[in-house]
Amino acid sequence: MSKQTLFATVTIGIILIAGVFVSLGLRKTPQITFTAVAKGDITQAVSVDGMVDSSQDLSLAFPNGGTVLAINVNAGDTVKKGQVLVKLDASAASAALSQAQASLAVAQANYQKLVNGDTGAQLTVSQAAVQTAQTALDNAQKTQTATVAQQNLIVNNAQIALLNSGLAATPASGNLSTISPTISGTYTGSAQGEYDIKIFNTGAGLNFSYSGLETGGSIISTTGPSPLGTKGLYIQFPSGTIYPNDTWTVFIPNTKASSYLTNLNAYNAALQTQNQATVSAQATVDNAQAALTQVQDNLQLAQTPPRPEDIQAAQAQVETAQAAVQGAQNNYNNDTLTAPIDGVITAVDSKIGETVPGSALVPGTDVVKMISSQNLEIIAYLSETDIGKIKLSDQAQITLDAYGSSAPFAASVIAIDPGATVTNGVSTYKTTLEFNKPDSRIKTGMSASVLITDQTHTGVLVIPQTAVVTKGSQEFVLTEAGNAKTQQTQIQTGILDLNGNVEVTSGLTQGQMVASFGN
Predict the structure, then answer these.
(1) Tens digit of pLDDT for each residue in 436-461?
(2) Is the dihedral of CA 384, 388, 393, 397 positive or negative?
(3) What is d(CA 122, CA 115) in angstroms, rounded to the nearest whole number?
(4) Which DSSP helix (H) or strand (E) runs through 118?
(5) Which contacts (CB < 8 Å, 24+ apart) does range 4-11 have?
(6) CA-CA-CA-CA torsion for 430, 398, 369, 56, nearest 10 degrees?
(7) pTM exceeds 0.90 for this model
(8) How far apart are CA 385 and CA 428, in angstroms?
(9) Which of 139, 279, 305, 404 has its CA 20 to 30 A from that of 357?
(10) Which helix (H) or strand (E) holds 203?
(11) How far is it, in rounded angstroms, from Cα 398 to Cα 412?
């Protein structure tokens, strides 16, 4: 073939290809390389960055609250499941447990007495038990009375301190006087409000009046304090010029005083302590009353021949007492905070001697925070184009930045969020992978490169992705047709790999030459 004929053939081929590209709606003809359709294996995979996270992030708190007695861990400590982390003062819970155990012992003994029949000595013991229970009830009631009185006094003192926070006479902005009277004494009232003090001249001298919480007045004296109402306060006017119609206000309490917030917190704390103490004292009385009622019933049963229903009732009392012991034991155990899993302490939010509220009353009162040291995960965010290429249980190879590619780790996909996470207008889908085996080298917060393998097709036809031209919903390639000509061939594709190849499921045969298009 002559050079002129070869040039014409190539030119015709290029013109034909250009014509095809025009028919496909492309604006310009790209660079073209012909590649043979090959048969081989292709693996669909997704590469994405991720980060190691813990599958368990726990916040631990005491259900009932109390005073911190011991803290056995610090942030950063590694702990084992069941290890004691923090302990509260369990003296009250221990006493309640002992009392419940004693009540159980009484119930069990009474049941046996009922079944076996009581002797004279056993009746004497039952009578003594009633006397002991009565004494316990009397003591509990006395303690309750003393507790209520003590807590009332504490709350009253805290209220007095609050209402007397920084008492002072605050001058009105329009006063001519440059001096202010001094407020002394202790306000003994319970009402909050103010005393409004005003100076007036009777002709015989200056007087002052007050209104607000109380109403009254007196002659101004600079030699000694004068009563300000009947609630324990006094007012002392200093030497100097005082002008009629000047006014001052005494706020009860003075919310702008430096001690106000401290006194308010102390008052609220006293109210909380009062509630806890009175509830505890009432519970002790209730338990003592229940114990007395129980032994009284047992004594009556001991003096009466047992009936089947009596035996059933005694058994029920034993079961009730057992439940009470279990409840008391639970309360006692709840005063000790233990690690529910193997893990690492991330924060300790309490101090020895501090009173912590119970999470049942104040949700979110965490004492210790920890994460699992074993169940570590990889969190990655996949794009819209990649999320459809993976599924649950897909295997993955993890490369941690800390160790490099020489130390890969195996993982699998365990969760794919159905909803998108939108950041700066870009939608991604949170994907969670779990390491297949625990490894002490893996730490939370490590950066990772994730390669997720979805599926592999073997012995299939493979061509470069750059050979495929899409028009609408259809896919085409350009194949050699002989005589330097090409033809447009419709195909169907399957999976893609990360190396720029795509599977051809129909439309081509092995060995056919297809055009690949560059820029």
Answers:
(1) 988 888 888 899 999 999 889 999 99
(2) negative
(3) 13
(4) none
(5) 9/483, 9/484, 10/484
(6) 60
(7) no
(8) 9
(9) 139
(10) none
(11) 10
